[in-house]
Design a protein that fits this description.
Keywords: Transcription, Transcription regulation. By secondary structure, the protein is mainly α. The chain has helices spanning 12-23, 28-40, 42-61, 68-78. The longest helix has 20 residues, at 42-61. It starts with 11 loop residues before the first helix and ends in a 7-residue tail after the last helix.
Amino acid sequence: MSDCQGLGDCEDSRLHRLYEYLDGALPAHEVAEIRSHLETCPECLGEHDLECMIRSAMKRSCHEQAPASLKDSILGKLHGVRPEA
C-alpha cells in the first residue's frame, strides 16, 4: 500500500477516516483531502467502493422494523431497569 501516503500509513488510519468520510463525519478540509486521495489511490478507492456496496446492500435488506417490545427491553437494560412484563 505504498501509494497511500496521503492518508498516513493507509492501514488502520485509512479505514477509520474512510468510514468517517462515508458517514459524513469529517470537516470540509478533510473531505477534500480524502476525495483527492481517492482519485490517486486505486487501493483506497477499491475499499471505498466496497464499503459503498456493503452499505447499499444493508439499506436494501433492512426494511423490517423491530417490535416496540424489543426497543423497550434494550432501553430498560441500558438504563439498568428491568422492563415490566
